[in-house]
Amino acid sequence: MIWRSFLLSHGCSSSRIPNRPFPSLRVLQSRAHSASAVRTSKPNVAAVLNSKPSGDGLAITVTGSVRTIRNQKHHSFLELGDGSTTQTLQALLEPAQADGLGTGTTIEITGVWRPSPVGKAQQNELKAESIRVLGKTDAERYPIQKKYHSAEYLRTLPHLRLRTPLNALLARMRSECDFAFANFFRDRHFIRLQPPLITSSDCEGAGEVFTVSSNQSISATGESPENPQSDNVPFFRDPKFLTVSSQLHLEAFVNEHPKVWTFSPTFRAERSDTPRHVSEFWMLEAEMQTESLHEVMELVEDMIRSLTLHLQGLGCIEELIRADRGSGHTNTIEPALRAHFLEQRWQGLLRSSWPRITYEDAIHRLQDAINTKQANFQYHPSWDTGLQLEHERHLAETVGHGSPLFVTDYPSKIKPFYMLPSTTNMTGERIEHKTVSCFDLLLPDMCEVVGGSLREHRTQNLTQAMRDNGLNVAPESTISHQGTSAKPSPSLQRGSLDWYVDLRRYGSVPHGGFGLGFDRLLGYLAGISNIKDVVPWPRYYGRCDC
């Protein structure tokens, strides 16, 4: 009635206002329940396997794809899977019902879910009453058979390997990770953001970026960009790139929102073909108002531990062990050893505290390992060269002892320009072996998975660091003459990162953050050493299939 009176008072014709009242909350809940019941009336394989039939059994209809089928004289035994679990459902068919069915065919089975005869491996089975073929497959030519397939072979079939039990499990784990991350950050009052994928800058400053262009601007002939009608004018007037990190754009929100995060794809044009690199992958990144690097590290530690507990509660270790059969990833490892291997990894992530050492300490430990003949490295560890993969592995083993290891305070010369210095004298002048307030998180075998730092929030210090790194920044005198009401200059004149300096020019706060390579972490949890076997659609140097 209140809304009716409001609409009439604002000139709305009474004939256009419905007389029936708005549905009550109970009615809406009832409708939602009914709609939900309709959508979920057909159980998946996991739900059927978790149900316990009694008496004459339970009448059900279930859909899935044929994993294998064994035809005998009087019966056929079919294994059905649908990705909801790595286990298969056994169905008992009459020979006529099995006619034309083969591996890869998608079917709908209606029948009775009942206890199996005594002595059978599976406690229950589905006695089929009717079968409907939803998607027929030529079983003889189907590339994914129930046998050993090497990871290299499956990599040639990225669109079909998604149907294997392991890849189906990885897809579910990805979904659960997204859910767990969202809950973790929401509980801590972080705001989730959607930063752009097309950017005007290279955040890391390494130059390994993909340039964005339209079809018309690929073969530019140098015509003046003042003529926007020309097909040869770059779409954005000056070069733009696919993002290598969302950090800079997240920082733009920190003044208004003290805690922000995102989970999005990133791109690196590295011409490397190693088990640890792909050109497109997912990053979880967070920024927060803080003056403490330890606070950022504690957030990372809590987040990964919380995620591990969530996945452990879902029984993912047991499913990973089952999924190994025929996956091609770890087929050579005995199930008992495989289970121990995964449990050790997960237990390391769940330890109450993770060790932390400085970069300087790390270099001393590596050099001592050489001097005492405990290790022999291809690359000699030194202050200026950074940590190589072999160094990170040694540190993770000898210091981490199975748990993650934080290495902090790297030399500024080997880190990006935006990091806050961690060592200066009383007057703020540079000193020898200057370091920045940053960290890398190393996992055993996988090595670096997270990188984070405090950000330089002081304008003059940031612009000087940018100039030291060869980045284009407009002089302060230019900015002061423009005033706050001046129109922004084109990025070619101001420099592609000048907008980032504006975040300091017009007031900033001490803050820091981190980026997590999600696919590496998922590979670590799943016991998969090659990231190309973790990413559903791997893109890397020389390959971008599908």
UniProtKB/TrEMBL annotation:
Q: Which SUPFAM superfamilies match?
A: Class II aaRS and biotin synthetases, Nucleic acid-binding proteins
- Write down the CDD domains for this protein, in alphabetical order: EcAsnRS_like_N
Q: Give UniProt keywords alphabetically.
A: Aminoacyl-tRNA synthetase, ATP-binding, Ligase, Nucleotide-binding, Protein biosynthesis
Please give the GO cellular component terms listed in this UniProt entry.
mitochondrion
Q: Which GO terms describe its biological process?
A: asparaginyl-tRNA aminoacylation
Q: Name the domain of life this protein comes from.
A: Eukaryota
Family membership noted in the UniProt record = Belongs to the class-II aminoacyl-tRNA synthetase family.
Cite the PANTHER family for this sequence.
ASPARAGINE--TRNA LIGASE, MITOCHONDRIAL-RELATED, ASPARTYL/LYSYL-TRNA SYNTHETASE
Q: What is this protein called?
A: asparagine--tRNA ligase
* Lineage of source species: Eukaryota, Fungi, Dikarya, Ascomycota, Pezizomycotina
